[in-house]
Amino acid sequence: MTAGSNTPAAHSEGGQLVELSEDDQVEIVFESYMLSGQGMWGDTIPGLIDSFEQEHPNITVVGQGVDSGNATSSVQQQVLAGDPPDIGQMVFDSMAFSAESLGGANLSELVGQEKLDEHFGGKYPFHPRAKVLADIDGATYGLPYVFSTPILWINEDLIEEAGMDPETIDTSTWESVADIADQVTEHTGRPSLSNACVLTTGRWCMQSMFLSNGAQVLSDDRSTIEFGSDAAVDTVDVFKTMYEDGILSNEDEMSQYDTFARGDTYAFQVAPSALQSSFMQGAEGNDWTLDTRVLPQFGEQPAVPTNSGSALVMFSQDPKKQAAAWEFMKWMTSPEAYEQITTGIGLLPLRSSMTEEGGPLHDFVEANPLVKPNLEQLDELSPWVSYPGDQFAQIDELLGTAIEDSVFQGADPAQRLPETAERSQQLLER
Fold first, then answer.
1. Residue from 204, 211, 5, 207 nearest 99 by CA
2. CA 352 to CA 147: how far, in whole Å?
3. b/e string for 284-323 if b means 16 or more Cβ within 10 A?
4. What span, in angstroms and rounded, lies between the C-alpha atoms of 336 and 164?
């Protein structure tokens, strides 16, 4: 990910952080949607905060919950009030905005490249495609924290009931998946495929659909909107055709997940890997067999997964709080933390070598083979693109609406997407 030319790529080997003494008593605020009391986070993150404070008795961490959909606006309001959190868990689509407009720290300059490299390395280094997810113009503006990729979830029972062997079906391409879904739909009389990526709430993984079909949403130099291209139109048309053929469901995101978990409708569901625990509970409770596979391809083009998720961004201005914040950010992205995050929540560690033989998460992965497609897709990961400028969220909303209207409401993607791209380009240039 790169930002516009307004954000310099400053680097310093040594950095500018001050050293904390044992006599320094520092309080820092950590704002996180994983502290909101919603979802599957449970006690894992509060437990990590407690462990950090035990190891650093001179640093107190005040946890501050926020809804994930309001993470950016919450920090923005606090920045405008002159009192931002010292660390914010920022969703990746807001990274450029966080750096350019909210004052997120350039860690390459503040911490120094030497300390960054040391942290990203170690016995269990960050996956090379994961460690750059919060980079802008070659500088690091956050520590990538947690994410998932979109994968193909499968209900083996429905496929078997439709007369096919779920172990041998070909899910390598969207064409073959559509053929299987057509057979299941003929058997059940209901749409048997759902794809959260084509909804307005699934814009992050729709970028994966575009990239897998040779399209981009933004030019490499971040100056031009590109989702009006022929390849982008063709991508949307694939799913529009599936809907018109009666195999693609039109339900909102949460309804899709609930329907799939019941096990009586969808043979296939494209959804984040982070839903593993929910789908496992649904399969067990409703007595059906769950499986996962990597994303299908468009023809012979390799599938390119994107990521959801977030990074830890430092907003501290006080030197001592910056030093304390850096220690906490390191802890929350350490092997010890990822061991708790993976086993307690189900999210993959960005230090993926922890899952290899001899690593602390090897046995967990072997006991939970459904995570393997997500691990496999890390090697092909392409960052979730954030649009530059203050109108980034509006651009994303315009695109999501254009996709959903084209797939489900009869709009012509060959007209709608170029029009939306032109309007978004105007917002980009404001």
1. 5
2. 12
3. eeeebebbbbbbbbbeeeebbbbbbbbbbbbbbeeebbbb
4. 43
329 CB-near residues (< 8 Å, 6+ apart) = 87, 143, 312, 314
Q: How many CB atoms lie within 10 A of CB 367?
A: 8
> Whole-angstrom Cα distance, residue 411 to residue 223?
27
| Beta strand pairing call for 135-136 and 139-140 | antiparallel
Please write the tens of the pLDDT for every residue from 1-39: 443 333 333 344 667 899 999 889 999 999 999 997 655
Contact between residue 34 and residue 335 where contact means Cβ atoms under 8 Å apart:
no
- DSSP H or E stretch at residue 422: helix 413-428
Radius of gyration of the chain, Cα coordinates, nearest whole angstrom? 22
Classify 30 as helix, strand or coil.
strand
Does 40 score more than 90 pLDDT? no
Average pLDDT, the chain: 92
- Return the number of other C-beta atoms located less than 10 Å from residue 105's C-beta: 23
Helical pair 203-212 and 230-244, crossing angle rounded to 10 deg = 110
Residues 151 and 377: beta-carbon distance below 8 Å: yes
3-state secondary structure of 396: helix
Write the pLDDT tens digit of every residue in 346-363.
788 899 999 999 999 999
Q: What predicted TM-score, i.e. pTM, was given to this entire model?
A: 0.87
